[in-house]
Automatic annotation (TrEMBL):
This is DUF3606 domain-containing protein. It comes from the Bacteria. InterPro entries: DUF3606. It comes from Phenylobacterium glaciei. Pfam families: DUF3606.
Length: 60
């Protein structure tokens, strides 16, 4: 059975979409880094949040 709509959001997704400003702002605040650091890590390691976190030395 599928989850009801509205129960999941981008924080449940294993991927980061840098075009979605709210996603970048959320992770920047959570990890205590800048928007530019997240975009730089995204370009280096790809879209997976766990990989970006490792690149920044943070936990997902």
């Amino acid at each position: 059975m599928a989850e009801p709509k509205g129960k999941r959001d981008f924080r449940d997704s294993p991927r980061l979409d840098p075009k979605e400003r709210h996603q970048v702002e959320y992770w920047a605040k959570r990890w205590g880094v800048t928007h530019d650091q997240i975009i730089s890590a995204y370009r280096k390691v790809g879209m997976m949040v766990k990989d970006i976190a490792l690149e920044l030395g943070k936990k997902r």
